[in-house]
Amino acid sequence: MEVVRRRALLGLFLLSLAAGACGQASAPQVVVYTSEDQVFSEPILKNFEKSSGIAVRAVYDTEETKSTGVALRIVAERDHPQADVFWGNEPLRAVMLKREGLLQPYESPGSRDIPKRYRDPEGYWTGFAARARVIVYNTQQVKPGNAPSSVRDLADPRWKGRAGLANPLFGTTTTQIAALFTLWGDQTTKTFLSAMKRNDVKLVTSNGEARDLVWPSSTRTRPASARSSCRTSWRWSGARRIRTRRGS
Questions:
Q1: Of 22, 30, 38, 122, which residue is 20 to 30 A from 233 by alpha carbon distance?
Q2: Residue ranges making up the domain that contains 175
Q3: Between 38-52 and 2-21, two packed helices, what is the crossing angle to 10 degrees?
Q4: pTM of the entire predicted model
């Protein structure tokens, strides 16, 4: 986490210098659009302000539009761009913004030790942190030995009406489904999605809501003996990325 924090701070510092060189003579400021959870991104941005003396004006995604809100805002602002830095929480929107011609290439000195597979070959984005996709289950309802161990299990009839998934039209679930199309092919993935629908898998607004259905927030403040227990059983890796926009 410390390495991630340092890379993020270094990237923001260098990007803000570039933005400031093109800006006004007023106090330096960098505008950051981020879909990373505010609880994690805001402390990093605050630390950057303290260490650099450069003010940060942050625009955060909402939970319901996570990953898509600020990215689409950049698209809408293409003729009058407002953001200096786009800090995403998954890779697809960076690819989309690059295709739209809304990013500038930037090679951060802090990315030199990051493997090339996690960086755009033309320097339009850099992946600097890992994330995980997990299946969460309540151990008071499901024994560990019987818990689903694969995303394929969501289509298993024994979980009919008992599973939930964040809406794949938004957020990091979009990337997960896109990865399945790449790994499994179109027909297999479409068959799987149809099977999940028949299995009454509930689509919810966010990963947070899916977690809350398994582990309600009201139980987290109760004595340990009264709490619902929550575990994860399956992981799928992705990446969070930081990028610049056109026309600083």
A1: 38
A2: 132-238
A3: 60
A4: 0.70
